[in-house]
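Q: What does the assembly look like in three dimensions?
Context provided by user:
Components: two
Sequences:
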Amino acid sequence: MSIPAHMKALLLVNDGYASERADARLEAMAPYVRASEIEVPSPGPSQVLIKVSLASINPSDVMFLKGLYGQPRRQGQPAGFEGVGVIAVAGENAGAHLKVGQRVAFATGLSGWGSWADYAVAEGGSCIPIIEGVRDEDAAAMIVNPLTALAMFGIVKEEGEKSFILTAGASQLCKLMMGVARDEGYRPIAIVRRDDQKELLAKAGAAHVLNASSSGFAEELKGVLKAEQPRIFLDAVTGPLAGEIFAAMPKRARWIVYGRLDTDATPIPEPGQLIFMHKRIEGFWLSEWMRNTPPEQKIATIREAQMRFKDGRWSTDVNAVVPLADAIDKVPEELARPNGKVFIAP
Amino acid sequence: MSIPAHMKALLLVNDGYASERADARLEAMAPYVRASEIEVPSPGPSQVLIKVSLASINPSDVMFLKGLYGQPRRQGQPAGFEGVGVIAVAGENAGAHLKVGQRVAFATGLSGWGSWADYAVAEGGSCIPIIEGVRDEDAAAMIVNPLTALAMFGIVKEEGEKSFILTAGASQLCKLMMGVARDEGYRPIAIVRRDDQKELLAKAGAAHVLNASSSGFAEELKGVLKAEQPRIFLDAVTGPLAGEIFAAMPKRARWIVYGRLDTDATPIPEPGQLIFMHKRIEGFWLSEWMRNTPPEQKIATIREAQMRFKDGRWSTDVNAVVPLADAIDKVPEELARPNGKVFIAP
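A: Here is the predicted structure of the complete assembly.
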């Protein structure tokens, strides 16, 4: 494979973290990334260089661009946490299964060289060879959402209760998780912000869909919690709503934070519940799960994600595929439309 | 042992929880307990009736009186979570080691019949036969503080780091724990509110004593955390100070709440740290520890507490022993003096 000396990429404009609170909506690209032409990077011995076919945009990308993601930005590096592409160069210690020409889904959280570019760099351990029959749109969004969904559903299964709670219920991640949960006889409780998402989520597998913006929310939540007794609360939002849900949950509830879409302060409304009701608050991060999960379990989880996409049980809802050259102008308006993913095509 | 039909007791005036926030200071007894003469209760089959020699007053008693403790008050029942006394009646299933005439330390959290009375009722499992040579003042305060101190220090030892953080550093509980910790080569970091507690706590075993009210606190904390890298934060206070300490702690920090002396709102300043730094927030309750700890470990912990009091490594600082008849009038002013315990003598 011949590799050019230079490539196009969307580079981070800022360093470190945001100095002020901001919301999780991407109002424009220009304050955060600029289109540029830079040298094609060289992968290290444990890394691969990937010719990017399609890069995804996740809520975590937007939080990261805005300096709100809990990891520092590095000015001048390409953005983009995941994508799909073909290996162009494989480092000598990247892994024997990662050959030049192999199609892989990849994540760039550890390498720091993003996917919104012609070429990306990923650690070998952050690459998943993709089987025949899985679309690029599904492979480009294979890691951040589907693996997080399956890994967190694994926590629900270990805990044993059939019901669990999800905020940001209309996200791709939650829809994927609820489908799996329903197939296995579980009863997800999805928290949303708009009534028009209710029917969609009931179809996606939710046993209950509650609108946190409705006036009867607190009462409705109380009734559902009493009936279902969920112990696990998978929270992408934080802020006062998440605190309210946690306080209403029964004994031994676990509030598992995996996202921070509400950048308002997050209170613990009743800290005494930590003592007398044995509740606890923790976090989930896929990179940490990847590091600490036994290889067999990891391989089985990755295989399940691919099979679900291949046989059609899962399918990524695509709102738009935006060419890299148009991304600065067009991504914000495409992202503003609900219920589907936006991709960048180099 | 002849048992009278009636007895004197301090009875709870209120039911349930406080309807408003309040601080943890006992401004007066009369709004919360009244002196009364009631029938001597009959213990159930798993319980014992104890002729109380000395009853202790802990911060958790004050929180409970005021309806701030996370467990509901029951109007008309005697207050008081622990004490020492002699068994007057033993239920048939209370335990073979609990004979009439045996001196025991006892806790009333499960029975609900308090120790601030001539006679108290406790579950057999909440009684500890006291060995010769342990003073009543030490036995009356044997359970809530010493066992909590040893049980929580056990968590520190399991975690492995030599340093850990304590709020309410000048409490009896913290002083007991720091003595044990120093003996075993650990380095407690005590957080206090007044400079005049510093010397006292350095003597009690603190490696560092930080005054949270001083202007340089944040900087000083940062330096100590960097040097000591503590993972466990044993917190009796909650509120904004506790949140600030937790946010400053390194990766994998565990915020373990066991008290709630600051009744202000408790924020999680950086929820992203739960995700990316694997921090977590949980609680500790001695009753739960008693239920879930293997018997050998429990017996060894109880034995260690008694031996430490018997051989003088531990000694309860006594501020006052107030006769039951004077308690309504005198307890608040005695409790207001720092650095020692107040007891009620029936």
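Follow-up: The radius of gyration of chain A is 20 Å.
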